[in-house]
Design goal:
The complex is a heterodimer of chains A (about 425) and B (about 375).
Chain A (H helix, E strand, L loop, with lengths): L17 E3 L32 E5 L5 E4 L7 E5 H26 L14 H10 L5 E3 L5 H6 L4 H8 L31 H14 L6 E6 L6 H13 L3 E7 L2 E2 L2 E2 H4 L14 E5 L3 H19 L2 E6 L18 H11 L1 H11 L5 H24 L7 H4 L12 E2 L8 E2 L4 E2 L4
Parallel strand pairs in A: 5-6, 6-7, 7-11, 10-11
Antiparallel strand pairs in A: 1-2, 2-4, 3-10, 8-9, 12-13, 13-14
Helix pairs in contact in A: 1-2, 1-10, 1-11, 2-8, 4-11, 5-6
Chain B lengths: L5 H6 L18 H4 L5 E4 H15 L3 E5 L15 H5 L4 E3 L4 H13 L3 E5 L10 H9 L1 H4 L8 E6 L15 H5 L5 E3 L4 H13 L3 E6 L7 E4 L15 E4 L4 E5 L3 H16 L3 E5 L2 E3 L3 H11 L2 E4 L8 H11 L11 E3 L10 H4 L6 H12 L3
Parallel strand pairs in B: 2-3, 2-4, 4-5, 5-7, 6-7, 10-11, 10-13, 13-14
Antiparallel strand pairs in B: 1-8, 6-12, 9-11
Helix pairs in contact in B: 3-9, 5-6, 10-14
Classes of the chains: A alpha/beta (about 425), B alpha/beta (about 375).
Chain lengths: ~425, ~375
């Protein structure tokens, strides 16, 4: 039975918390222990310890299935897991807001695509997978880079072109990498075949792992996406294609770019699930479902995360010329992923309002510290030897690389400038 | 009673001579080779054996492309590999270059070592974003944290009568990309040594073969038969000379050698023929050395004339100490500035051949 998920609002049901004190739920196989330097887990004013297992009933409209039964609406988790996801989302939000400020202060140059409003996806996916799985996405990648293990400092330093950046200042906002995270890709849609290749490698090496390959509604019409779907299905590859449908591809509304906007059905012969991407619990549940699907040898699966970005496409786009401020405000006030999880935290008695405020404050302080560290960090030295580094794998370079003029030719065997004629 | 020269008899495989005799344009069967003193091998066999040995040596290596498995390769370069190594290592794809090239790059990012076969490099244009933006640039953009070890190989340039969309030479296009290496083998030994080196190279390598060379038979040294045989990416002097240097690569080496023979016999000109073997890196030291020796330079390529490999060679020579050794401007022999026509009479004007090279040499040496 197909449910029509209303475009902008999501009902948040009252939570029926059943406290199962005994078991830890194995469905949550790996909760990433992310370091969060400045907060301590608080149990002060609640009646339960934060490791208590909890079941939450997700709203009926969380999922819609295509060629597959939807994941269970019973979300089983632990309180510490919920807290962790809250912290993760807040840090990403703060980090992205810091990017906004740094960009306006001209400390970040070029392109900068923020994911404010879309935090639930990076956080929900990461908490549902392990370090053995791979993740790849587009240029809206800061949150994913952090979740995959980079520090906030590493991300911000890269955006500011510092040597301490995750790509040593060579890549910038769109080319961030981390262990098991393959970017950060600047060409729209290119990450989809790449992610399919990551899944190919998982299968080739007989690994118990899958590839989460994310792309937007704008990228969904790329030919290479369909070429990837075809091979993934033919080769039965363990790849979860995730369409982050934030309703706009740059300035073009989905209905103007896509003859069919039900992106979870675009896989045609690949089953799909549409997910409320503003609810981190639904994102987690769907991601877990998808990973299990792949790992049980059922081949690819498509997830469509319905989400929203409050900011423009990038820092050069105010984001208000193609949509109304009311729409943005409506999403912010009624569907914010952080506010939504906060409600679960307070309703379940995991944390009080005051404690949540304390987490927020701590996150802000943490990110500020990381910003300061990144800001203080040095850029790469303005040396041609560094310019020419990394074009090829160290030790396997071609004999020379040329600069702007012949005398700026670098000789790798000499490790110095080439003899000037 | 007629006399048959020992040479002719040796060519027919009837006798074994003291010095090896090259048999051109024949497919040599293994049995016959045991009788002669040196081994010959076609370029196809050289490529096939190189791929097989590298698949054998390293489980991370696999080959992927259209018709590489069950069809045994559109040009039979991958013949027998599916039978020997199985579907996991030899992967047939749908006709989706953009998709399967991207898939292969993704696999390389995760640490596998794909060999991507383009049925023709003309089709690589559909996938060129992945070759350049996803493969070549990634090591740099990631600050050296993300390796991409892979080979893109297949026939490049013209065949015969395949017309405009199937005849373009991409050596100049790929040669300009930092992060790639571009190799252009000529002989069977080149094919073996360079392909094995390319597969083992931790960087993405574009390996430009030539369809018309696949059947050509060449002598190969004992050393070249070793499973660990690799060649450095350096030019090779195919023929020593002192009056003029003809610098070229791939099938044009054959035409240059023919031209050198004509020049010697008819004009008493001693031409040195340099087989570049690599476009990136371009062996500028070899260029300088040969120009210093002969003072005259002719380049030969099958690319379009504008912004081609010859242009780059001319610029490099002019910027180097070799400039002072030139006694005449460099002569470039290139493909014609036209989409390749179909009719033979016209197609013959589209690409270099021996007589055209001879003309260019005469121009360089101011010979009538």
């Amino acid at each position: 039975m197909m449910l029509n998920i209303p475009r902008l609002t999501v009902q948040r049901s009252l939570l029926t918390g059943s406290m199962l004190s005994q078991s830890t739920h194995r469905s949550l196989s790996l909760l990433s222990k992310r370091t969060f330097a400045t907060t301590k887990d608080t149990t002060a004013s609640t009646n339960t310890t934060s490791d208590d297992a909890v079941t939450i009933d997700l709203p009926e409209k969380s999922f819609e299935g295509y060629l597959v039964d939807i994941p269970s609406l019973k979300y089983e988790t632990t309180k510490s897991s919920l807290l962790q996801m809250y912290k993760d989302m807040v840090i990403i939000r703060r980090m992205e807001m810091a990017c906004d400020a740094l960009y306006k202060a001209k400390k970040i140059r070029g392109f900068c695509h923020l994911s404010v409003g879309q935090e639930a996806i990076a956080v929900g996916v990461e908490n549902a997978i392990t370090k053995l799985d791979s993740v790849i996405t587009s240029y809206r990648c800061h949150g994913f880079t952090y979740m995959r293990g980079a520090s906030v400092k590493g991300v911000l330093a890269e955006l500011m072109g510092k040597r301490d950046g995750v790509s040593f200042g060579k890549g910038g906002s769109m080319h961030l990498y981390a262990p098991g995270f393959y970017g950060g890709n600047g060409i729209v849609g290119a990450q989809v075949p790449l992610g399919t290749g990551l899944a190919f490698a998982h299968q080739y090496k007989n690994e118990d792992a899958c590839s989460f390959t994310l792309y937007g509604d704008g990228a969904s019409n790329q030919g290479q996406v369909f070429e990837s779907f075809n091979m993934a299905k033919l080769f039965n590859l363990p790849v979860v294609y995730c369409c982050e449908n934030n309703k706009y591809g740059m300035g073009t509304a989905a209905s103007r770019s896509s003859a069919m906007t039900e992106y979870y059905k675009r896989g045609q012969y690949i089953p799909g699930v549409k997910v409320n991407g503003m609810d981190v619990l639904a994102v987690y549940q769907a991601s877990k479902f998808a990973k299990d699907w792949c790992l049980s040898g059922k081949g690819p699966l498509l997830l469509e995360f319905e989400t929203y970005r409050y900011g423009g496409h990038s820092m050069s786009d105010p984001g208000t010329t193609y949509r109304t401020r009311e729409e943005i405000q409506n999403m912010r006030s009624k569907n914010d992923p952080i506010a939504g999880l906060k409600m679960h935290l307070t309703d379940l008695g995991i944390a009080t309002e005051a404690e949540v405020k304390a987490y927020d404050k701590a996150a802000r302080k943490y990110v500020e510290e990381q910003v300061a560290l990144a800001d203080k960090a040095a850029p790469p030295e303005a040396k041609l030897s560094i310019l020419f580094e990394d074009v090829y794998v160290k030790g396997t370079e071609i004999p020379t690389l040329r600069g702007r003029i012949p005398e700026d030719t670098w000789d790798f065997e000499k490790n110095d400038f080439a003899k000037k004629y | 009673m007629f006399k048959l020269s020992a040479r002719k008899l040796a060519m027919q495989g009837a006798i074994v001579t003291k010095f090896p005799v090259m048999r051109a344009n024949t497919v040599v069967r293994p049995m016959a080779m045991r009788l002669s003193s040196t081994k010959t091998m076609t370029v196809r066999e050289a490529l096939n054996s190189a791929i097989a040995e590298e698949l054998d040596r390293d489980d991370d290596v696999f080959i992927i492309g259209e018709e590489v498995a069950q069809y045994n390769g559109a040009y039979k370069v991958t013949k027998g590999l599916l039978d020997r190594f199985g579907e996991r290592r030899v992967v047939d794809t749908p006709i989706t270059e953009y998709g399967f090239t991207g898939l292969a790059v993704g696999a390389a990012l995760k640490g596998l070592k794909p060999i991507v076969e383009f049925m023709s490099f003309n089709f690589s244009m559909q996938a060129i974003d992945h070759v350049v933006n996803s493969a070549a640039k990634t090591h740099y953009m990631s600050g050296g944290t993300q390796k991409c070890q892979m080979v893109f190989r297949g026939p490049n340039g013209a065949a015969v009568g395949v017309a405009a969309q199937h005849s373009q030479d991409y050596s100049a296009w790929y040669g300009s990309i930092p992060g790639l290496k571009v190799l252009v083998p000529y002989s069977a030994e080149d094919a073996r040594g360079l392909l094995k080196a390319a597969i083992r190279d931790p960087n993405p390598v574009v390996f430009l073969e030539n369809e018309l060379l696949y059947n050509e038979s060449f002598e190969v040294s004992e050393e070249a038969l070793s499973p660990d045989f690799t060649l450095p990416y350096k030019a090779k002097i195919e023929r020593e000379g002192k009056d003029v240097s003809i610098v070229t690569y791939t099938r044009n080496v054959q035409f240059a050698l023919e031209a050198a023979k004509i020049l010697q016999e008819q004009y008493n000109v001693s031409a040195e023929v340099i087989n570049l073997r690599a476009i990136r890196p371009l062996d500028v030291d070899a260029l300088i050395k040969t120009v210093k020796k002969t003072n005259h330079l002719v380049t030969v390529e099958s690319t379009f004339p504008a912004f081609g490999v010859g242009s780059e060679i001319v610029a490099q020579v002019m910027e180097s100490e070799a400039f002072d050794y030139l006694d005449a401007p460099v002569q470039r022999v290139t493909g014609a500035d036209v989409p390749t026509p179909y009719a033979k009479e016209l197609e013959d004007f589209a690409f270099p051949d021996a007589p055209t090279i001879v003309k260019a040499v005469k121009e360089s040496l101011s010979i009538e």
